[in-house]
Design goal:
Chain lengths: 232, 891
């Protein structure tokens, strides 16, 4: 990460929303470039080389999905899509097309900053660079080198699939992992629609790792989209 | 003291005036004879009006090739004539539809008495004018005195020429203006000689008689009298004096052609007295024996009376005089008009005289005897021919006599011949009581012959030795005649009674069945069936749809009808008058149409197609048909009203909901908005005076109020989705725990300080549910618990496996549900009484119910043992959950 303040490109057509995002981001040390259309957004993404892109899915001139796809043709810049509740299909579409994360309107500043932080953190790590060998979050400790899992200091035995699922979430820590993504990576492409597998194993993981599986603090469900391993 | 006007009469007057205001104005150019220049006068007046800028159109004007008339027509817009093809000849008629479409300010329609060619909308032109007036178009027309219905016979008497084209007097009475076009008779004759009066060739010789000077003078006087009467009438109308309900006239109608004359006389008397009048026909048992022609004549006479403005009534009973007087007394009638008897005095002696009885029993009622026209009135027996005997009857007569002869032959020698006569007498009585008159007469003659031949000395000759047998024969003959007359009468009465009973029975049957029907389609089917059965004819039924259009009821199963029939039905509906086959209006169809008029107006039209159209000219049948239609109309109206009131109820309910929604929305949206605006504006105006803590609190307020609004808006949107049917349940097999988890996380902040326990059995299977929706149910139930229970009290979420379903429960330890409200709390906009500060539009639980129902489950609430409320919902387990391969080895 450089010393220069990271640049956030905001592609959002509603002025009030833009004003809120600008003040929230600038107040927290980000530089903000704002545009109101997808066309301008793509131009600015190429010209300004932003560190993070906030993309509203309800743009007047283009489908958010298309914008994500076209961005991904030439840029790896993290994209966080913003959408209203009830547009789960659009979100999943954008995520599968290469978006990194999403925010559901209305959201608070805290949530926004957390997502941007996670996105920047993931982007700063080059794909070749190995992940840190030991991941710790709350009660959970995962030793990737030794393939050991501890919950509140006690070693927890996971099945191979559970372990694979957990490492996937840890690799994307703080980011949403879509159901499709998880099923494909853990069970293989043939299982891409067998969501109940994922749900059953997530439940098992929670029972092994959460204090109260019915009120998870770590392995969060993103309803209709996927799962997220919460990071502070 | 001045008499106070009767309020009812005043009301009626006001209504009449209103109706008149909407009606078009009618001006009639009235003349004593053709050739006086009515058309000319009308056109001249029209040109003046037109010069003044009025919109004037000629509907139809006959110039009869006269140059001066043609010049007047020039330049005035003239409607094209309608061409009607009638038996190969093309006839040109006034096009009423064109006139209605053009809607001129004033329309000129010449010759009011004209008879339209077959195929035109109305049989007569005055009916066209009626319709035009009814739609508010002003009309000017022309009329000669001889065409006036009530003066028709007077004119015929004067001139000896009978005119068939008549116009009802009501036309003239209702005219807003009548202009008498007068020409002195000698000038008229001069014009006639000069060929200035149009005379159709075929009528030339008749008109020669017509235009004699004497006639013209008399006609002119008649026309002047009519004109004067009209002026007086209109003056009276002008003062708007309500007619005293003093005089009421009744005229007796029969089959005799003289009746027409009596009816006209009654109309003149009624007009003179300004009295209401009634034309009455009494249907006695003998009615069934009247010939077809007579029955038609009665129908025509009644219809004539109706045209002349009478109310027509058909009574039924034994004695004409008794029925007439009973009716007269019941209806405050003080004058009765009857025709002068035309039959011989003998008949009166034998059978009693209606006139005599009437006069004797009339009491305070005046009875007027009017001369029938002797030439016109062909004498006719009141009793028509008895039912004709057929061969079978004659054979029967022979058989009866043969049997009597056989029995008598067996007894011959054992009994006296007078006793044998008794046996034959018995045969005669039996034959007379069973057989028609002629056959019984044959039986009588045969009996006498057989008796004479076999049992009167000398045997086997017709010679009679003893004179007193002649007396026996005579007695037998008389007995036979009397008996057969008696039995015939009894049979007739029985037939009449049966017919009456059938009619009443049919009507009762239909009424009863209609009363039982609750829905319009069934009712229409029932009504049609009854009409069809009772009248033996095809039936059409038109009703007014909700869009106000007259539609053929498909439920009737009648043959399809074309546009023409529909247009007649529409006319009937609009004018609330019957039309079609057998009437004067639109007769060019096979169907007879009656309006279905109920108390609140017409509800439809019924069409009847009888094998013989004349059948419905019979007043009894017509009346029965009208009674049936009345019943059908009343029933249809009942259904319609029921539907309307149902709709009104639903609308009221919807209105109530709308009001509730508006009030709760305005409250629920405004409260957080007020909070947000207040907090935000104080942050904006903060000149650094506020402590960071205070600023934080203000910001907190904004955030909390925004969330509250978000929840409300989300609920509203969900409600809309539910109500509009846009809610799609996308079921996936998933653990309940995950859904509960999401709900609890989303409510995390608001659950602070609450002990929330989740008890889910470990063996709970996966559920086929839409996670997002069930999450919403849980959130709403938990929010509901938060809203209605004191802070700090626990909330318990649990689930248990039932019979092929899972029951989920959200329970609290709050005050519990108000008694009796357990069922209502899921209703839209319901809010618990005494809800305190708890807000919310009362939609949450309704949404829960909608979602659970969409999942095939139930939702209910009850009070918990030990205090608090429990909300439960069931989620059915459909099919076995998909298997998930488990692995044993740990990593």
């Amino acid at each position: 990460m450089t010393d220069v303040a990271p640049t956030v490109l905001v592609i959002e057509d509603e002025p009030q929303m833009r004003r809120f995002l600008r003040s929230a981001l600038e107040g927290n040390g980000y530089r903000v470039v704002e545009v109101g259309t997808a066309r301008e957004g793509l131009a600015q993404a190429a010209g300004r080389n932003p560190d993070v892109i906030l993309l509203d899915l309800g743009l007047p001139d283009a489908d958010g999905l298309d914008v994500t796809r076209r961005l991904r043709e030439w840029a790896a810049t993290p994209v966080i899509v913003i959408s209203a509740r009830g547009m789960e299909t659009d979100k999943i579409g954008a995520l599968d097309a290469g978006a990194d994360d999403y925010l559901t309107k209305p959201f608070g500043v805290g949530e926004l900053l957390a997502r941007i932080r996670v996105a920047l953190r993931h982007a700063s790590r080059s794909p070749d660079e190995p992940a840190e060998p030991v991941f710790t979050q709350g009660d959970l400790t995962l030793d990737l080198a030794r393939r050991q899992v501890f919950s509140a200091g006690v070693e927890v035995h996971l099945t191979p699939t559970e372990y694979k699922l957990l490492t996937l979430l840890v690799r994307h820590a703080g980011k949403v992992v879509t159901q499709r993504q998880a099923l494909k990576e853990v069970w293989g492409p043939n299982y891409a629609t067998q969501t109940h597998y994922l749900r059953v194993y997530m439940a098992q993981l929670r029972h092994k790792l959460e204090r109260d599986p019915a009120r998870p603090r770590l392995l969060l469900t993103e309803p209709g989209v996927g799962y997220r391993l919460k990071v502070d | 003291m001045a008499r106070r006007p009767d309020p009812d009469a005043l009301l009626q007057q006001v209504r009449a005036e209103e109706a008149r205001a909407q009606r078009g104005h009618l001006k009639i150019f009235f003349g004593a004879s053709p050739g006086v220049g009515k058309t000319f006068a009308m056109l001249e007046a029209a040109r003046l009006k037109r010069a003044a800028g009025q919109d004037i159109v000629i509907g139809v004007v006959e110039t009869h090739g006269r140059e001066d008339t043609r010049r007047l027509v020039e330049g005035i817009e003239t409607l094209p004539r309608r061409r009607l093809d009638y038996r190969g000849t093309v006839l040109e008629e006034f096009d009423i539809d064109a006139a209605l479409a053009r809607r001129p300010g004033l329309l000129l329609v010449d010759e009011l008495a004209h008879t339209n060619a077959p195929g035109a909308r109305h049989a007569r032109r005055w009916q066209d004018v009626e319709e035009l007036l009814a739609t508010g178009i002003d009309v000017w027309s022309t009329l000669n005195v001889q065409h006036l219905e009530s003066l028709n016979d007077v004119v015929a008497q004067i001139t000896g020429v009978s005119v068939r084209e008549t116009v009802p007097d009501s036309m003239l009475e209702r005219a807003d203006e009548v202009e008498l076009v007068d020409l002195s008779p000698d000038v008229l004759q001069q014009r006639l000689r000069e060929g200035k009066v149009y005379v159709p060739d075929q009528a030339a010789h008749a008109l020669e008689r017509f235009f004699r000077l004497g006639n013209l003078i008399a006609l002119r006087r008649t026309a002047e009298r009519v004109d004067a009467q009209m002026r007086g009438y209109m003056q009276a109308e002008g003062i708007r004096e309500t007619w005293p309900a003093g005089d009421r006239l009744l005229v007796c109608v029969g089959a005799n052609p003289a009746t027409a004359r009596i009816v006209r006389a009654a109309r003149r008397m009624a007009a003179g007295l300004r009295a209401d009048w009634v034309a009455v026909y009494v249907e006695t048992p003998a009615h069934t024996r009247l010939s077809r022609a007579d029955q038609d004549a009665i129908a025509q006479n009644l219809s004539l009376a109706e045209q002349l403005g009478a109310q027509t009534v058909t009574l039924s009973g034994h004695s004409v005089s008794e029925e007439v007087l009973a009716y007269a007394r019941d209806h405050n009638i003080n004058r009765i008009l009857v025709g002068k008897p035309t039959h011989s005095r003998w008949r009166d002696r034998l059978r009693g005289s209606v006139l005599d009885e009437l006069v004797r029993a009339s009491g305070a009622i005046d009875v007027y005897v009017i001369t029938g026209d002797a030439d016109e009135g062909r004498p006719r027996p009141v009793l028509g021919p008895a039912p004709q005997a057929v061969l079978r009857d004659y054979l029967g007569a022979v058989g009866v006599v043969a049997a009597a002869t056989g029995v008598s032959l067996l007894l011959r020698g054992h009994v006296q011949s007078t006793d044998i006569a008794m046996i034959f007498l018995l045969a005669v009585v039996v034959a007379s009581s069973r057989l028609p008159q002629r056959a019984s007469l044959l039986a009588c003659v045969l009996s006498i012959a057989a008796f004479d031949f076999c049992f009167v000395q000398p045997y086997y000759t017709f010679a009679v030795s003893d004179v007193h047998y002649v007396l026996t024969f005579g007695v037998m003959l008389v007995i036979s005649l009397v008996m057969s007359r008696l039995t015939t009468r009894i049979r007739e009465q029985a037939v009449a009674a049966r017919e009456r009973e059938e009619r009443t029975g049919a009507l009762y049957g239909m009424t009863r069945e209609l009363a039982a029907e609750r829905n319009a389609a069934d009712m229409i089917r029932t009504a049609t069936r009854h009409l069809r059965n009772t009248f033996g004819s095809d039936v059409l039924l038109f009703t007014i749809g909700d869009d106000g259009r007259l539609e053929l009821e498909p439920a009737v199963g009648a043959p399809p009808v074309d546009e023409k029939e529909l247009s007649i039905a529409l006319w009937v509906y609009d004018h609330r008058q019957l039309a079609g086959a057998g009437t004067a209006t639109l007769p060019a169809t096979e169907w007879l149409y009656l309006p279905l008029v109920a108390s609140a107006g017409a509800v439809g039209v019924v069409g009847i197609r009888a094998p013989d159209p004349r059948r419905f000219q019979d007043p009894v049948r017509r009346q029965l048909l009208e009674t049936f239609s009345g019943q059908v109309a009343a029933s249809l109206e009942r259904v319609r009203l029921a539907r309307a009131s149902q709709r009104a109820k639903l609308e009221t309910e919807a209105e109530r909901l709308r009001t509730a929604l508006l009030s709760s929305l305005s409250h629920d949206l405004r409260t957080p908005l007020a909070g947000i605006e207040g907090a935000a504006s104080s942050l904006l105006q903060d000149g650094g005076a506020q402590t960071p803590n205070a600023r934080r609190e203000l910001a907190q307020t904004i955030v909390e109020e925004s969330r509250r609004m978000t929840r409300l808006v989300a609920n509203l949107l969900e409600m809309v989705r539910l109500e509009s049917g846009a809610l799609q349940v996308q079921k996936e097999w998933q653990p309940l725990e995950e859904v509960v988890g999401v709900a609890l996380i989303r409510l995390d902040e608001r659950l602070a300080g609450r002990a929330v326990t989740t008890t889910l059995p470990p063996d709970l299977p996966l559920l086929p549910i839409d996670g997002l929706l069930i999450e919403q149910v849980l959130i709403n139930l938990i929010e509901n618990a938060l809203k209605y229970t004191p802070p700090g009290t626990p909330i318990d979420i649990s689930a248990r496996l039932g019979d092929r379903e899972v029951i989920v429960e959200v329970a609290d330890r709050g005050p519990g549900l108000p008694g009796g409200d357990e069922g209502r709390i899921f209703e839209k906009f319901y809010r618990a009484r005494d809800q305190g500060q708890a807000g919310g539009a009362g939609l949450g639980l309704t949404i829960c119910r909608g979602i659970v129902t969409a999942h095939g489950g139930r939702i209910w609430a009850e009070n918990r043992p030990g205090g608090g409320a429990a909300f439960r919902f069931s989620l059915p387990l459909t099919g076995p959950p998909p298997s998930v391969q488990r692995e044993g080895a740990a990593a």
